[in-house]
Amino acid sequence: MSRLGPSRIGWFPLAAFLAATLLFPACNRGRHRVLEVAYVSAPQAALRDQVAAVYNRVGTVKNGDRVEVLEREKRFARVRTAGGGEGWIEQRYLVDQKTFDAVQKLAQDNQDDPLQAPGVLRNDTNLHVTPGRETEHLYQLASGAKVSILKRATAEKQLGALPPAKPTAVSKGARAPAQAAGEPMLEDWWLVRDDQGHVGWVLARMVDVDAPLEIAQYAEGQRLVAFFVLNQVEDNDKGVRRKVSQYLCVLTDPHDGLPYDYDQVRVFTWNVRKHRYETAYREHKLDGVLPVTVTQENFDKEGTLPVFLLRVKDGAGNVSERKYKLNTPIVRRVLAPGEMPASSARKRRG
């Protein structure tokens, strides 16, 4: 008996080792090594239990969700969600970490950009990392979504992407975009921010500038690029009192691919006697660059007045600022020491 005891005891560590060796693969059965991290670029996508014509829906992921890619098969990827659910999803609904980081950087770089105009989307629209129809995107906004317009850029138009637009009449004195033979056609893009703080580039024709009708009706066939409330005045029309806004508007000809963001500005002031808007100031032939800045400044005897700053390019492409002040109903340039007034200015009252 004494010789058998130690022998049996010696078998216990070996048996435990063999059991652990056999059980370990079973415990890991169904687990997969994470290949990479991806993000969902579709508004919503289903997770399947298998890659087949007939499948069961085992989950749903939404735009911007982070998932772990476990394996890939043809057009599909098996992913794990933050909640631990697993399933197959079409790979075209995923973007990689590099794209996500680029989206985050774009938002961070432009988080302090001033609003140039509110806009409304005409259709469901992707927020692109850079201007261009084929560039990467992550977030998608629904038709009717409201956005803040921040900047403008141009990108080469993809031939065949849209049917050719109808010819647009060029107003007298307008500067139509020069299109040299063999040069690519350009289309305008807006950098926008949504109410969730997502930032991206959208095709400009997909966004309507959401301007008040009382100033939009004076566009005279021009494209309204941006508008700003300079101040408000008190109006009393037959005992009905109300505050009425006075506006700065920047406009351009209705063409894509122009070498400037805007080429004209107008200031609309309110005539408290006639109870209507009037053009207090107009300037043409500007090579204007966004953003436009509106602020206030003290002018001693005149008091505190609304001020707007325009950024304008010269013939060499150098950008300088021009300052203007509104002392209703008069708009005047505020010249820096030694600065001469621009010869391109055009003023009109009425």
From TrEMBL:
Species in which this protein is naturally found: Candidatus Sulfotelmatobacter kueseliae
Domain SH3b: 55-94
InterPro entries, alphabetized: SH3-like_bac-type
Name of the protein this chain belongs to: SH3b domain-containing protein
Stored Gene3D superfamilies: SH3 Domains (2.30.30.40)
Species lineage: Bacteria, Pseudomonadati, Acidobacteriota, Terriglobia, Terriglobales
